[in-house]
Design goal:
This protein has 375 residues and is α/β, with parallel strands linked by helices. The protein has two domains: 3-154, VC0802-like; 176-214 and 251-373, Vaccinia Virus protein VP39 (Rossmann fold), CATH 3.40.50.150. Helix content is 32%, strand content 24%. The protein has helices at 14-23, 42-51, 70-79, 106-125, 176-185, 203-212, 234-246, 263-275, 314-331, 344-348; strands at 3-8, 27-32, 35-40, 57-66, 92-98, 138-145, 148-154, 194-196, 256-260, 282-286, 299-303, 335-341, 356-362, 365-373. The chain has a seven-stranded mixed β-sheet with strand order 2-3-1-4-7-6-5. Strands 10-9-8-11-12-14-13 form a seven-stranded mixed β-sheet. A hairpin with a 2-residue loop joins β13 and β14. The radius of gyration is 23 Å and the shape is elongated. The mean pLDDT is 94.
């Protein structure tokens, strides 16, 4: 049976997510703002949750209702047969996005939906489900736009970008999903040596290792919310997981190097790499940027230096960017470098001509991924 799904994704990553979904077997893939519509069967739903490196969560729309105000929203939510989706002994929560003129506060909108659901349960069974905002069995997504509300079941639960391997993180870490997307933007493939000379807590090299070893990121999760659904097919899910495990590789095709000048950052990166069992595949060292040398005669560099918005002060970072450009030019002939930055003035200090500029958001910060061909 073919169903329609909606994958939520960070702003600017819609096209990359669409390509990933197509590679996983999705049909009728249609990117939209911060999301991608696609179609597939139940097996695809499980597969996307287990394999996606880019998206946040997969929603399964169950109803679109009129909702020009709180009263109409409550009335139409209560008309839905919630027994098909939620059992009395299951906990649930509402995640609300969007707004209109009357429903302009997400907490109030979520409260109206919750009240309608539990009032229906009380009317039918004289009992109601409990709310659990931290770890609900059933997570309902409500999106308000104009005078309508799209109600969906969230199949993922906790955002898929949380791989489960990152107990230790730096002061301004990349989301794992953004790190995976940067690898795609840089056209990095596992047969190309990789280097992050400012690796922080190690997210970029770890995501590179997971991709190179063909490790499905969802394998590290404790559970997905679709496992709590009444139509959950445990045998099908187990088969997809077993296939994912069988497809893992045991050796890298090309080396992955990472370093940082801060010994504490290197320690955190090692903890994170060990958590997902790729620590013995990474060449992770403590090296100051000024002392770094090219480890091979070609490869791809991706780095995320501080750019004054979260770490450091921009006026103090000019020398760092100049050093970065000097190191690239003097020691990395034959390589291609990518620098993610949210500060145009700082990137001018690199002093090299860019061969590409890709707009990207790091959270809410508009940034650019700058490409440098190093001859």
């Amino acid at each position: 049976m073919t169903n329609q799904y909606f994958a939520t994704v960070a702003r600017g990553l819609e096209e990359i997510a669409a390509k990933e979904l197509e590679n996983l077997g999705a049909k009728n893939v249609n990117p939209d703002f911060t999301g991608v519509y696609f179609e597939g069967d139940k097996a695809l739903l499980y597969k996307v949750n287990i394999w996606s490196r880019i998206i946040f969560r997969v929603l399964v729309p169950i109803n679109t209702i009129n909702s020009k105000n709180a009263e109409e929203l409550y009335k139409n939510v209560k008309k839905i047969n919630w027994a098909e989706h939620l059992q009395i002994d299951q906990t649930f929560a509402i995640n609300c996005t969007g707004k209109n003129q009357e429903l302009n506060h997400s907490h109030f909108t979520a409260l109206q939906i919750k009240n309608a659901i539990v009032d229906q349960q009380r009317d039918r069974y004289n009992r109601r489900s409990n709310i659990d905002v931290k770890d609900p069995d059933i997570l309902i997504n409500a999106h308000i736009y104009d005078h309508q509300c799209i109600l969906s079941l969230d199949s993922s639960g906790e955002s898929l970008h949380r791989r489960g391997y990152r107990p230790a993180m730096g002061d301004a870490p990349l989301k794992e999903s953004l790190a995976a997307a940067l690898l795609e933007m840089a056209n990095w493939t596992p047969d190309i040596p990789f280097l992050d000379p400012m690796c922080g807590s190690g997210i970029l090299p770890i995501e590179a290792a997971l991709k190179s070893l063909n490790i499905a990121p969802g394998l590290s999760r404790n559970r997905f919310n679709f496992e709590q659904w009444s139509d959950f097919d445990a045998e099908l899910c187990d088969r997809i997981i077993d296939e994912a495990i069988e497809q893992q590789k045991h050796e890298l095709d090309a080396p992955i190097f990472a370093s940082d000048r801060n010994v504490e950052m290197v320690r955190q990166a090692r903890i994170n790499a060990k958590k997902c069992d790729v620590n013995h595949h990474l060449k992770l060292t403590q090296v100051a940027l000024e002392n770094i040398e090219a480890p091979t005669d070609h490869g791809i560099i991706i780095c995320n230096p501080p750019y004054g918005k979260r770490l450091g002060k921009s006026e103090e970072l000019g020398s760092l960017y100049k050093l970065l450009g000097d190191i690239f030019k003097q020691r990395f002939k034959g390589w291609t470098a990518y620098v993610l930055s949210g500060n145009k003035e700082l990137t001018k200090k690199v002093g090299l001509r860019t061969s590409g500029r890709i707009p990207v958001y790091n959270g809410s910060l508009p940034c650019t991924l700058l490409k440098y061909e190093l001859y």
